[in-house]
Design brief:
16 strands; three-stranded antiparallel sheet; alpha+beta; five-stranded mixed sheet; disordered N terminus; binds protoporphyrin IX containing FE; about 475 residues
Length: about 475
């Protein structure tokens, strides 16, 4: 499934513009116009922002430029230049302005904070994500997934997208916050859905933060959903404070961590805790749920790969629950998950802003320039992935991986702000695939519409109805 092309009567199509100079600066080719309305139409009309990026790459190549108001914006589709921004010259860039409006939901948590403050918060949270610690989470992941599989009778239809959201939400709550949110799962999911529906419109509005209080129905719904989500989180904090015990989970680490800002009893304020918890909740469940949903979708369209993965799982597990020790032998399952995140990366685009003038390839850009790059676009590039729309897990053999530049595949970002939950996500993804596909295959109910919906994460636009079937290889015996 490809996203639709921009209209052909576009005044910019083919209007190539060479490198241009402005004072001491050299800009890449790009859009002639400087019209917010034009960009607004491209970016935020009910279509999707991926269209603009595809258009830029197709028309101007791996580095392109446009202006919005007084701001210079570069779209980068080159692995080496992405490495320059995220790694080699990382100290010349911040996330701050590109994430500005995410703060209306996430506040000042790990994703949206910057500098010294961010480094301190990351140090506090890091132990919860160390390889050794996350191994303890494996049993919970498998146990929750087994309960879900047991509930699905062969022949039963269900919405895989909703199921994966519920499952990953339970996993994050129980592993990182030792909290059972089973009762609130539906409510949390509903609030997040409301927020996501309105989110693109909110971030499209300049200064959305300032009129969030206006009595407009969409904004009222957004505020209510956010308040209900906050209530769940504040309750969690209050219960843990009252219990006054260290359960060794992320919540305990956050509560024990010192914060020099506003203080309650020497640790972080409730407000700061709320921001960190909401950030990790949303970053930790939505992303993995989307990755898994797209994986089941791709497997349903590629029965040979599904069969090969299922056989690997049935051979390795022999009918028993998966454990952490099985992971090295579930290689094909991991390759399937990797290939799925190539085609449908949950974090589909990223941005940075320069804090000083920077040299990038032949270009020289002033401080304050915005840089965007998209996993979705680059990971579908013919140059690094021949026949890019074909689902082929073999692209992730060690040899094939080594033959590509590091940043031709970056679903978890890179450099100092690389995803803190990456190892957690790989483990959870593979264990959930292995548990659910044990003795089961999933098939899309025919006749459904499938499309992407690029919000903060790359969500499926419609429910994904699937049928569970008992696997033939299991019925027939090994
Ligand atoms: C398939 C699953 C996931 C994907 C694709 C993903 C992707 C990403 C990406 C691309 C970034 C970097 C953003 C940037 O630099 O602008 C990021 C950061 C982050 N992710 Fe993930 N993530 C996933 C799972 C998780 C999980 C499971 C957690 C936690 C339980 C998590 C927590 C975070 C946090 C806290 C950050 C901010 C890190 C920092 O800036 O220090 N993510 N993620």
């Amino acid at each position: 499934m490809a996203t639709q092309s921009p209209p052909s009567n576009d005044a910019d199509s083919g209007a190539e513009r060479p490198i241009f100079h402005e004072g001491a600066f050299r800009y890449p080719p790009g859009l002639q116009r400087n019209l917010p309305l034009y960009l607004f139409r491209r970016f935020f009309r009910p279509g999707n922002p991926i269209l603009l990026f595809e258009h830029l790459v197709r028309t101007y190549g791996p580095v392109s430029h446009y202006k919005l108001g007084g701001s210079h914006i570069l779209f980068i589709n080159d692995p080496e230049l992405i490495r320059e921004i995220l790694v080699n010259q990382a100290s010349s860039f911040i996330k701050e302005r590109t994430q500005h409006r995410m703060k209306i939901l996430l506040g000042q948590g790990l994703i949206t904070s910057e500098g010294e403050f961010h480094m301190r918060q990351r140090r506090i949270a890091a132990p919860a994500f160390h390889r050794q610690r996350i191994q303890n989470y494996a049993a919970i992941m498998v146990e929750r997934a087994t309960a879900m599989r047991t509930n699905w009778q062969p022949g039963q239809q269900f919405d895989m997208a909703a199921a994966m959201m519920e499952l990953t939400l339970e996993v994050v709550a129980q592993t990182l916050f030792a909290t059972d949110v089973t009762r609130e799962i539906r409510q949390i999911n509903d609030e997040v859905n409301v927020i996501m529906r309105l989110y693109n419109y909110l971030i499209a509005l300049p200064k959305a933060e300032s009129y969030l209080r206006w009595p407009i129905p969409g904004l009222i719904r957004f505020r209510k959903a956010r308040a209900r989500l906050d209530a769940v989180v504040y309750r969690m904090i209050a219960e843990r404070r009252a219990a006054n015990e260290d359960r060794g989970d992320l919540l305990s680490m956050l509560m024990a961590g010192r914060d020099d800002g506003e203080n309650t009893g020497g640790g972080m304020s409730d407000r700061q805790l709320r921001d960190e918890i909401i950030t990790i909740f949303l970053a930790g469940y939505e992303t993995v749920a989307n990755a898994l949903t797209w994986t089941w979708y791709l497997l349903s369209g590629n029965p040979a790969a599904a069969e090969r993965m299922g056989q690997e799982i049935d051979r390795v597990l022999q009918g028993r629950p998966a454990t952490i020790e099985d992971l090295p032998r579930l290689r094909y399952t991991e390759m399937v998950f990797a290939e799925s995140m190539r085609l449908y990366p949950p974090a589909w685009a990223m941005g940075r802003q320069s804090t000083q003038s920077v040299e990038l390839g032949p270009y020289r850009l002033p401080a304050g320039t915005y840089f965007f790059f998209s996993q979705y676009i680059l990971q579908r590039s013919e140059e690094y992935y021949p026949d890019p729309l074909r689902f082929d897990p073999e692209r992730f053999t060690p040899e094939q991986k080594a033959a590509r530049p590091r940043f031709a595949y970056f679903p978890f970002g890179g450099g100092g702000r690389q995803c803190i939950g990456e190892a957690f996500a790989w483990m959870e993804g593979v264990l959930i695939l292995a548990t659910l596909a044990q003795r089961r295959r999933f098939r899309m109910v025919p006749g459904q519409q499938v499309d992407v919906q690029p919000k903060i994460t790359l969500r499926p636009k419609y429910p994904m109805w699937m049928v569970a079937e008992e696997s033939r290889s299991y019925r027939d015996g090994p």
